Amino acid sequence: MSKVAVIGSGNVGATTVQRLAELNIADIVMLDIVEGMPQGKALDILQAAPLIGYDVDVIGTNDYADISDSDIVIVSAGIARKPGMQRDELLAKNIKITQQVCENIEKYAPDAIIITVTNPLDIITYAALKCTQSDRSRVFGMSGLLDSSRFASFIAKEMNCSVRDVKAMVLGGHGDSMVPLPGYSTVSGIPISAVMDEKTIEKVVNQTINAGAQIVEYMKNGSAFYAPSAAIASMVEAILNDTKKIVPVSAFLNGEYGQHDICLGVPVKLGKEGVGEIIELELSNQEMAALERSANAVKEGIAKIRL
User: In the chain, how many domains are there?
Assistant: First the structure.
């Protein structure tokens, strides 16, 4: 049985553990520095197993030694964004937390694939890669798949069609500068430009860009976790089953899309080795310019960190 470690037992971490357990593909360790919290939540999830039908082990711990031999480590530790808070405001505190987490991953699970979830995500992913000195194929962030799922949900709602018929693509940084791509988004294989007018497309694009902030505004003292945990679980499933699924993730770029030394949302093939291939889409001049702006926003954040 494969083993997955989830660092952080807050809403994102605990919901991720629940979704992974229900996939029935790996034993799971949930770690948090708060004593009793991961133990209690893990026990609760484990006691649901007879009702749901999963047959995996779920443990909660405060000891990093328990993540040893993990195939995948999911980093969801950090503080959440509050109303009115920009993602880069989270930077200093969450970078420090990420450094501490990565030191322990290096000590106890040096061969694990690392999926980052903590915001500001692209910068945290970059920091995790540099802290662990891992190959770029083995450290990447969740954001692109989440943003694309949000885009797809808004398209389906606008079209009044099944979400299963919608495929959407979002590139760039996980924030206000993200780049939804209507030209690479379809309904049952039909480009959305053929079934939606420009005004409607602009509406769903803006909804996608503002989706995370809108949830924060509604919740006041929290942020999204149902959709993020679903994105994480989908990525873990692709890795453990080696499906080579093409999904957008925050990956380290070394010349792709004209970008260097940056983590940015791009489509990749995801399998047992992590990022197997970065896929370069043909973008219009306008889309390339938007991606460049998004990359510059991420680079500004990277320039602020000290590793």
Answer: 2
Pairing, β 166-167 against β 139-141: unpaired
105 and 176 in a single domain? The answer is: no
pLDDT tens-digit series, residues 30-88: 999 999 999 999 999 999 999 999 999 999 999 999 999 999 999 999 877 666 766 56
Q: Are residues 158 and 294 in the same domain?
A: yes
- Residue 1 vs residues 17, 26, 28, 68, 233: alpha-carbon distances, Å: 16, 6, 10, 14, 16
Helix/strand/coil for 27: strand
Q: Which residues contact 275 (CB under 8 A, 6 or more apart)?
A: 136, 137, 138, 140, 249, 251, 268, 269
Query: Is this model's pTM higher than 0.90 or not?
Result: yes
Q: Give per-residue pLDDT as tens, 83-96.
A: 676 656 678 888 99
Q: Report the alpha-carbon distance of residue 21 to residue 26 in Å, rounded.
A: 7
Catalytic residue status for 260: no
Residue tagged active-site, from 174, 248, 251, 278? 174
Residue that terminates a domain, selected from 142, 164, 181:
142
pLDDT at 83: 67
184 token code pair: 């690479």
Same domain, 131 and 25: yes
Q: What is the DSSP string of 78-90?
A: SPPP-TT--GGGG
Check if the beta carbon of residue 283 is closer than 8 Å to that of residue 69: no
